[in-house]
Structures are given as C-alpha cells and as structure tokens.
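As a warm-up, study this chain.
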Amino acid sequence: MERGAKLFKDLIELGHGKSYPIKIFYADEILKATNNFSDSNLVSPFDYYRKWYSGKNENHPMILIKKDLAFKVDHLCRDIAVSSMVSGHKNFLKLVGCCLESEEAVMVYHGVKKHYRLKISEQTWKRRMKIAEDMATALAYLHTAFPRPFVYTNLSHMNILLDEDGVAKLIDFSYCVSIPERETFVRVTLHWDSIVTWTIIIFAVT
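Now compare it with the structure written out below.
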C-alpha cells in the first residue's frame, strides 16, 4: 500500500496531468515468468545489487526483468514514474510495468533485443563516441521533452546498457530530479553511507 500510494503520487506529480499507464504485476506472475528467478534465466548480474532476468508471459513473448536487491521506496517509485515517461525514446528501455508486492523491487521491460552491460575498455573510440552521442541525446530529451525538466544526477557506466545493435540505453532514474514550474533551480541533498552529506543546487538551463 505504501509503495502503491507513493508511485501514484509520483505519476501524477511528475506526469504533469498526462497519463503514462503501466502494468502492475503480481509476485507470482514474476516468479512464473522467470522460473522462480532461475539461474538459467539470469541475463547478467550487472552489479552487486541489481540482477537482470529474461522471461515471458502470455502477453509478452520476451521481457527483461530487473530485480533490485537494495532500494528505498522513494527511489523505486521515482525510477518507475520517470521510466514510464521516457519509454518511447530509443535511448531508454521501454517499461512494461512493475511488481510492488515482492520483497525486492522488480521492474519489467520489453526485451525484444538482448542487452549487455557497458564495458568501456572493450569499446573502440568510434563506438565510445557513438555511446556518448546516445547519452547526450537521452539527457537532452530529459531536459526538454517535458513541462518540468528532468536532471539526471547519477550518470555512470553502471547505468548504461547496450543492445545487440550497439544502441546505448540509459537506466535507473532513482535520483532523477525535476525542476519545479517557474523555478530556475532545485536544491538536492545526497547522502553517502549515512556519514557524508552533500547539498548541491541544480540549475535549469534555458
């Protein structure tokens, strides 16, 4: 109930009155789609707290399922809400839905193509430039496509996937910040291991 209420609030607030429908999956649907998160369905443990699985159900012959082992409700709902808004763009994964009742955070994406973790050392300079161009396009879309600009504050190679055609996809909008209407900046407080606290000011660029 807590997750559902927070997600609904974020969808309304960030969506600026526009509907971005997503499917809510039950936990047993996710287990069935992934064969109980079988290792045979594991695509890649991209990092120590996120695991990706291939799956399918009666409506989607191929889906990509992200299981987040360490998350906060606020971050989960922000990720789902923003992902639903950018799903139509080629440089973001297309969100199908999410599961709010499982112990871990689960998000479900269209998996029509294979995706791989970005390893910079394996990329030629030409490919690196193409990836940089894809990311610049994705960030520009976040800044300009919505009434309230979004600022991505967590850019890292860990949050970039490559599909089988080499197209870079930006993921994880947990720390994405929106600039309020008629405001030129927003103040953000970041916590690091509950010890170090950073306060930054993000300005809207016109």
